[in-house]
Amino acid sequence: MNSRTTLSAWLDQGAAHDPALASVVASIAAACAEIAVVLRTAPIEGLSGLAGAVNVQGEDQKQLDVVSNDLFIKHLGENPAISILVSEELNQALQFEREAGAGRYMVACDPLDGSSNLDVNVTVGSIFSVLAVPPGADDAALLQPGTRQLAAGYAAYGNSTSLVLTFGKSVAVFTLDAKGEFILTRDGIAIPAASAEYAINAARERFWDEATRAYVAESVAGETGAAGKRYNMRWVGSMVADIHRILMRGGIFLYPLDSETAAKGGRLRLMYEANPMSLLVEAAGGRATTGRGRILEVQPTGIHQRVAVILGSAEEVERVERHYAATLADAGE
Ligand SMILES: O=P(O)(O)OC[C@H]1O[C@](O)(COP(=O)(O)O)[C@@H](O)[C@@H]1O
Ligand SMILES: [Mg+2]
Ligand SMILES: [Mg+2]
What we know:
This protein has helices at 7-12, 19-41, 63-77, 139-142, 210-221, 239-249, 270-283, 314-330, and strands at residues 50-54, 60-62, 82-87, 94-95, 105-113, 124-132, 151-157, 161-166, 171-176, 182-186, 197-200, 232-233, 252-255, 268-269, 287-289, 306-307, 309-312.
């Protein structure tokens, strides 16, 4: 049997380059480990279905959205290094009470991603992003671009529970064992530059912009079209599951700015969906763009801001970027 490296041993070896930041990641991991346990038996405990409330995004909250959010609040609240929690499920940033000068970190999270897949027992996840904040920070100080993230990752609750983590330079994967410990199972994840698998909600075709249409048409044409190779399509409907597949074997994920989501700025949320996934994908050698620029450089204007998301294997993202460059130039943008 190989010797096992636990997440806490790995963090103790200095992976975070800062013990306080390591403790933030450990608190997030503890929340995810507890969410994994709750999910496993949720139908027995009567935790399926709706909570009967609507979140700030106007979406019906599931009971498990609320429970997962509460677990993030519990575990992060216990760590004095964390002063602020931004969550998909909270209208406003939650400020933890800390002693003067304590609490240098903020966590932005999607406590349960893909919750429409809960009732069909398909992989869901938790997504997180860690930023530094000055003590007593006002709301404006929370609105930092993704380039400022100190750590980011997600937990994927699938046939095993994976914790995928980056501090911006490389990507490591941990698997939850039967004792509730995360064990290092892969390190130095590299997304293949070339791929022949794309993920998009194709039912939205009538809303797509020209660049998305051109990219998908080329892919559907396969070896008979400009891409010159046959493609496969996958859409789980849980961003965590779609991005996990892309990190493990390559591919591209698109939730572009379409005519229906344009007024809101897109579908997915910048600070706790797009930014953490973009940091992971770039750290693994992939690319992440809105079609108009790098996601990580978008300046947020609100904690729940939405954004267009196109990320994954470098060559595929570059192909989409070429279509955007051409169509935006034609439109004089
Ligand atoms: O309903 P659609 O258009 O397939 O969108 C699916 C996308 O919405 C999301 O479910 C949004 O996340 P939440 O479940 O956290 O609201 C993503 O995980 C997923 O990629
Ligand atoms: Mg989500
Ligand atoms: Mg969610």
